[in-house]
């Protein structure tokens, strides 16, 4: 895995982290997970293990472990890496695997964004739009393998320069959600129960609350359906101990590999026909509709001139729209649609 | 062509037209064109040939002639027809040809919408959002055949009930634009010069003004490129004689067949390879991006609960997104992109 983080990129991110010590806000949105963690050369240089730097390190480690697990599973495709900088401050590392053996398109990004906020925005910082991006999205080829999306982020403000004693603000956001084209109950239960387990370690109210939040967030209003079968979603979370929330975000992020990889492993070679593929492509069309019309990260990114390729890497490689397509009642396609219209309790 | 307008549908639209005599606003957006015009059974019933009823008749005739020309060209696919009503008042006829021999997806809609406006909206009627839909879109299969979009509409208000003497307001809007994946200069010149000819019959300022308006309207801001090679676009047009503008809209609408059909006829069987197809699919992805993110008709329709299938019929059957795709400088793909970034004068 060492090849992921070459020297130049590491310096770049390190420098950003060092530099970030002063600015008015910093936000990071990416991906966490468990597994083999490469020894980061930056480890020794970070003198003060702030929440920010620990979160940053965590998501970089998760990027490594998720990409490693995906490559191992795919067997053919390799991630290509792009480092980019943001004119307003910050930058990121995008990794994209395209047209692999198992995955049609998998994008796994880490970014660190910082800059100066106007005082009004600082005062209402939670309402201020954070430069959020859609998180990593994994689109497999096989119609029986679900798409996965996840996104973990930490946001922090320093006091404005003209009011050095003003309180700092911070919060966590994140989530992991599953978008299958066909329902295998055991898969969906596996997915939700691991997430519930991660939540329950911290607060028994988390899973029911964040599961509902997820169902509400990934809602395609003009279709009256969710884009998939949910998972967990939370935002603006700061009414708990900060250390506890960092551990919670880490736990969720570390769950990405175990909630997802076993499902794809099981379904990646399932035989399918043209009908299954066309239905998967129609559901990918819904994915595009959600991301371009509703997703806050995408719509905000498009309007404010974010790095387009990083924002739109969440779109599937291919998608399809048929006029007035209606699955036959009782069919497998209809069952999926029904579950997207009427969210169920899976655990 | 007589089969297009079956008895039930005719009654339906007629009834709408009759009923429309009273309401506070009426807006119609569809497609006009020349050719063989079927004898509309409604012809005798319309006692007063108002601008509204003449426009309505014109767009229905254009729907017939465009669909007839497309079916004749396709040779295999047939249009399927759906009539629908709008809860707030009005309705329409959608015709969709899918997976034909020449066309991947062609949707040709006519709609009539009416209802009551709040007084503030009446007073600022041009600013009031009209229930506009994206117009007909024709997506051929062959990557060397361009996509065509067009949309002609007429909007009219009666005086509010509480102010019978208040002035009526009305305007015309419309346009026809071409979206190729590859540039054949003779095709683009053919397209633009017929449109210029149609404009020049009425006012020499029309073509330059509406050509520029079109380039500005179909702009994908986050890509800094237009979705295609333009055409003409106009809206809120009421500062000319009303009769003249009806004739102008009719002329433009009647140009749809001659500007487009000869191009597809010439290119529909051109040999192509996978690279050409993939590029066409990437350009279709841009089409989706424009329609879902920027197109006023689509975004308004999605937000206000319009008939989703009619609104999204404009989307291509299939589309594609590759991460960070950049055509090689000087290639045919690059030339198209360059023309989408730097609009040219074609005539």
Automatic annotation (TrEMBL), chains A, B:
Pathway: Porphyrin-containing compound metabolism; protoporphyrin-IX biosynthesis; protoporphyrinogen-IX from coproporphyrinogen-III (O2 route): step 1/1. One of its GO terms (biological process) is protoporphyrinogen IX biosynthetic process. Keywords: Chlorophyll biosynthesis, Chloroplast, Heme biosynthesis, Oxidoreductase, Plastid, Porphyrin biosynthesis, Transit peptide. One of its GO terms (cellular component) is chloroplast stroma. It catalyses: coproporphyrinogen III + O2 + 2 H(+) = protoporphyrinogen IX + 2 CO2 + 2 H2O. GO terms for molecular function: coproporphyrinogen oxidase activity. Belongs to the aerobic coproporphyrinogen-III oxidase family. This is coproporphyrinogen oxidase. It comes from Hibiscus syriacus (Rose of Sharon).
